[in-house]
Amino acid sequence: MTALRVVAAVLVPPLGVFLARGIGGAFWLNCVLTLLAFVPGVIHALYEVLAAR
Description:
By secondary structure, this protein is mostly helical. The chain has one domain. It contains four helices and no strands.
Protein backbone atom coordinates (compact mmCIF):
# COMPACT_ATOMS: atom_id res chain seq x y z
CA MET A 1 0.00 0.00 0.00
CA THR A 2 2.88 2.39 0.71
CA ALA A 3 4.19 2.00 -2.83
CA LEU A 4 0.81 3.02 -4.20
CA ARG A 5 0.77 6.07 -1.94
CA VAL A 6 4.27 7.11 -3.03
CA VAL A 7 3.38 6.78 -6.72
CA ALA A 8 0.20 8.78 -6.14
CA ALA A 9 2.16 11.42 -4.22
CA VAL A 10 4.51 11.91 -7.16
CA LEU A 11 1.90 11.90 -9.92
CA VAL A 12 -1.07 13.57 -8.15
CA PRO A 13 0.13 14.95 -4.81
CA PRO A 14 -3.29 15.65 -3.21
CA LEU A 15 -4.33 12.05 -3.93
CA GLY A 16 -1.28 10.74 -2.10
CA VAL A 17 -2.04 12.90 0.92
CA PHE A 18 -5.69 11.85 0.82
CA LEU A 19 -4.74 8.18 0.82
CA ALA A 20 -2.34 8.69 3.73
CA ARG A 21 -4.20 11.21 5.91
CA GLY A 22 -7.74 11.65 4.60
CA ILE A 23 -9.41 15.01 4.07
CA GLY A 24 -8.02 17.41 6.63
CA GLY A 25 -5.60 20.27 7.00
CA ALA A 26 -2.72 18.45 5.33
CA PHE A 27 -4.88 17.64 2.30
CA TRP A 28 -5.99 21.24 1.79
CA LEU A 29 -2.48 22.58 2.34
CA ASN A 30 -1.23 20.17 -0.29
CA CYS A 31 -3.93 21.29 -2.73
CA VAL A 32 -2.80 24.90 -2.33
CA LEU A 33 0.89 24.00 -2.67
CA THR A 34 0.19 21.93 -5.77
CA LEU A 35 -1.81 24.73 -7.39
CA LEU A 36 0.88 27.32 -6.63
CA ALA A 37 3.79 25.17 -7.77
CA PHE A 38 3.86 21.45 -8.46
CA VAL A 39 7.23 20.63 -6.87
CA PRO A 40 6.39 21.90 -3.34
CA GLY A 41 3.18 19.89 -3.53
CA VAL A 42 5.13 16.75 -4.38
CA ILE A 43 7.63 17.34 -1.57
CA HIS A 44 4.86 17.91 0.97
CA ALA A 45 2.94 14.86 -0.27
CA LEU A 46 5.99 12.62 0.03
CA TYR A 47 6.61 13.94 3.52
CA GLU A 48 3.03 13.22 4.57
CA VAL A 49 2.97 9.77 2.97
CA LEU A 50 6.28 8.64 4.43
CA ALA A 51 5.57 10.12 7.87
CA ALA A 52 2.09 8.52 8.07
CA ARG A 53 3.42 5.09 9.11
